[in-house]
Amino acid sequence: MAEYYEWFRALHLISVLAWAMGLMMVPRFFAYQTEAVPGGDVDLLMQKATDRLMKIILAPAMIAAWIFGLATLTARFSASPPPAWLLVKLGLAALLTGFHFYLVGTRKKLVRGERPHSGRFWRMLNEIPFLVMIAIIILAVLEPF
Ligand code: HEM
Hints:
The protein is mainly alpha-helical. It has one domain (2-142). It contains 5 helices and no strands. The longest helix is centred in the middle third of the chain and has 37 residues, at 41-77. The radius of gyration is 17 Å and the shape is elongated. The structure holds protoporphyrin IX containing FE (HEM). The site of protoporphyrin IX containing FE has 21 residues, from helix 1, helix 2, helix 3 and helix 5. The site of protoporphyrin IX containing FE (HEM) has 21 residues, from helix 1, helix 2, helix 3 and helix 5.
């Protein structure tokens, strides 16, 4: 396992990059969809774009980020307990996973024609994954505690 550590780390970073991109794009699509007429051209276009983004990028990238993240963890920390910064990082990754499933649930509501929040709400929500990822990267690179 340890001999693949660098590969696991590289694949982890590639998958979190794709996951991050998707998590930031979907709320923006929701904003456009919320402001569109239900059943109109823009609504249908955004539904299709969100569906494809979730199936082709978001879901596989999230699964790969977890698999390669846990593989990196096992390769590096098999002989010692994981440090505190890593536990906090895992907590933040779990938060992002919750955010991911919140978006999946909301997509279904929007497809049904419901508009649970305003376009402004979705534009602001778009910043949350970015802020959480800033914290994750600082923890992972500085390993402060
Ligand atoms: C999904 C669950 C996740 C798990 C299980 C996980 C696990 C890990 C582990 C064990 C390391 C330490 C690797 C090393 O030795 O440096 C690491 C590094 C890292 N992770 Fe994650 N991680 C996850 C999610 C994320 C997310 C969402 C991001 C995006 C911001 C991220 C970004 C990073 C970065 C930038 C590093 C530093 C790599 C380096 O220093 O070379 N991780 N991750």
